[in-house]
Amino acid sequence: MRAFESTQIFFDAAAEHLNIEPSLREALLMPSREVQVQVTIERDDGSLANYVGFRVQHDNSRGPMKGGLRYHPQVDLDEVRSLASLMTWKTAVVNLPYGGAKGGIGVNPSKMSKREIERLTRAFVDQIHDIVGPDTDIPAPDMGTDHQVMAWFRNQWEKYHGFNPAVITGKPVEEYGARGREEATGRGVGSLTVKLAKRLGIKPAAAKTAIQGFGNVGTHAAKFLYESEFPIIAVSDLTGTYYDPNGLNISEVLRHKLNHPKGLLEGYQHCECLPVDALMSLQDVNVLIPAALGGVITSENVNDIHASIIIEAANGPVDPEADAVLQEKGVTILPDILANAGGVTVSYFEWVQNRQHYRWTLDRVRQELDHTMNEAFENVWQTAQQNNVSLRNAAYMIGITRVRRAAELAGLTS
Ligand SMILES: NC(=O)C1=CN([C@@H]2O[C@H](COP(=O)(O)OP(=O)(O)OC[C@H]3O[C@@H](n4cnc5c(N)ncnc54)[C@H](OP(=O)(O)O)[C@@H]3O)[C@@H](O)[C@H]2O)C=CC1
Ligand SMILES: O=C(O)CCC(=O)C(=O)O
């Protein structure tokens, strides 16, 4: 199933509960603007390379549009469209004054030099600089991009429009970035995992956890949960699944990754190394955290999953067919638009600080993040209980209701 179709099915299920009529559904779901651009750079060897870049601006009823930039070979218009719509519901679920957007380039950054990635980023900004801005659409990191890419993006954008660091978030801390943005998504995932397990009566020692993807989100979620005494029994990246039924020493695993020339888990010796896909079907896993690509749990592999809790750190990891099977089995799924909202929440704090020319302490960022995530969690939990629906359905109902209200107040057709 294509990514946007998946998102649409989840949207429709909630819209049905809310009794939203078809033409309004269409208006809420249809992206406001989709831009596709050619991104051509000179490779280090002097040859030319052409890529396709996208920015989909889904909705701005609640404020400027917000969402990350992904550099990955699978990036295409359908995926970016789906990710952009998820941003609209996500910013609404955590009640940030934003709409939703997403962008990316179909490229494999692991096969490029640092200078090539810089040229690629600057060439992309040359193509889209006039549709993004601090009051219109504010990008941020996602898969394959980091604070360095954000710094290049800002620098190139400011060549056209002048000083304004609020044009992008997730910047280096010393260059107008917020303390705590890098850890924010993983920290939010970790704190809600702890909260959900407690709510379901599962003690940390019994919450054996597996994390797919060990990049920004996966590493910080692992760190938080390890410190909360959850046994992390497996983690994976593209080099394999690293498994210890008694729990990995996450400090040691993180040290290994830090010392690996490409930041990979490859070569980590103090556990079993299994094939990449083995992580999903490990029998002794209670909490499964997909933290890499979307569409990784489908009708093909759903029956191999043994976990009783799935935390969607990635965007769109479970497709609707698999979701239905998991619901039937009683698996609790914390949906992406709530679980991974810590990143955009601290992006919002960064944007606020940039606009006020003021800096918050890390303690303040963490405190406000925890407050926002807790409030959103409680709201989603209560809505699910009151309406007897899944947490995903409840989260969509909250998001859609807020966006619909803002759109109606503004005058839908104006
Ligand atoms: N960064 C953020 O703030 C936010 C991210 N997200 C979502 O979280 C997810 C991860 O993003 P992020 O951590 O930033 O991305 P990164 O690029 O930092 O890390 C991605 C990780 O996933 C691994 N990976 C890719 N494919 C597979 C696979 N098939 N099996 C196992 N591991 C795999 C990569 O391995 P390798 O290194 O070997 O390539 C890498 O470890 C995405 O879905 C993103 O949209 C959501 C909200 C905010
Ligand atoms: O930090 C942001 O603005 C957006 C992060 C993002 O892309 C996401 O939540 O999926």
From TrEMBL:
SMART domains: ELFV_dehydrog. InterPro entries: Aminoacid_DH-like_N_sf (IPR046346), Glu/Leu/Phe/Val/Trp_DH (IPR006095), Glu/Leu/Phe/Val/Trp_DH_C (IPR006096), Glu/Leu/Phe/Val/Trp_DH_dimer (IPR006097), Glu/Leu/Phe/Val_DH_AS (IPR033524), Glu_DH (IPR014362), NAD(P)-bd_dom_sf (IPR036291), NAD_bind_Glu_DH (IPR033922). Keywords: NAD, Nucleotide-binding, Oxidoreductase. It holds the Pfam family ELFV_dehydrog. The record marks D142 as: Important for catalysis. Substrate binds at K66, K90, S347. The active site is at K102 (proton donor). Coiled coil: none annotated. Residues 178-411 form the Glutamate/phenylalanine/leucine/valine/L-tryptophan dehydrogenase C-terminal domain. PROSITE patterns: GLFV_DEHYDROGENASE. One of its GO terms (biological process) is L-glutamate catabolic process. One of its GO terms (molecular function) is nucleotide binding. NAD(+) binds at T185, N216. Belongs to the Glu/Leu/Phe/Val dehydrogenases family. PANTHER family: GLUTAMATE DEHYDROGENASE (PTHR11606), NAD-SPECIFIC GLUTAMATE DEHYDROGENASE (PTHR11606:SF24). This is Glutamate dehydrogenase.
